[in-house]
Amino acid sequence: MSGLLPGDPAASVGGEATPRAFCVLAPNPSAMTLDGTNTWLLSEPGSDLAVVVDPGPLDEGHLHRVIEAAEQRGKRIALTLLTHGHPDHAEGAARFAELTGTGVRALDPAHRLGSEGLRGGQVLDVGGLEVRVVGTPGHTADSLTFHLPADGAVLTGDTVLGRGTTMVAYPDGKLGDYLDSLRRLHTMAAERGVRTILPGHGPVLVDALGAVDYYLAHRANRLAQVETAVEAGFRTPAEVVARVYADVDRALWPAAELSVRAQLGYLEDHGLI
Predict the structure, then answer these.
(1) What is the mean pLDDT of each run of 10 residues along the chain (273 residues)?
(2) Is 88 among the catalytic positions?
């Protein structure tokens, strides 16, 4: 799996991504999920224990393929983690926990199975595999990123995608939080050895710093376009979407409207409109 920046059409999806991360692609492709949801199987080399991140949709065949991928590598699934609670990442988690006898850990208690949750700053150790939990709200309030320091990699869920850009799922997601999260990832890439992004959808990105720079520039550009549209008299979110996202597939306009609502809220909060 390889990739440079969001939008690289040649990059492949699924399979071994790093020495500690293997992707099982869920069969739920769409305009919103790209090739489908990336379910990540993580394990320290030489360990017989594995962690699964984002079991994906409630698709029995997919859940069994994840278990089979672990068994083929001599691994037993010991833990299930969620980057956030959207159904394309989390709907299959309860059934997967049933099949594997594992708990499900998430930031939002509504998506947990078991007494333990997750929070930014935690460090998990599963069979010698170190997973650092990083709070990255914005796409949703409960969005987390998982850092694999041994691989110089981060699992970003929907915070950074392997192709294109993500939406801010307003009102749960907030643009100010999202920009702070992107800056946090930028610091990790610039100063803490993160080179690779393992996204929730789309191909792996091997230039983490370049990808986050792209996202920050894209957000700044879109925000300026929204501000200009409002100044030109486009007031409702639907009107702003038609103006600013005219070059985007109309199938994505409902998601774009959520992002526009988040951007309008951000501009209002900062006294810019």
Answers:
(1) 40 87 97 96 98 98 98 97 98 98 97 94 98 98 98 98 95 97 98 98 97 97 96 94 92 93 94 84
(2) yes
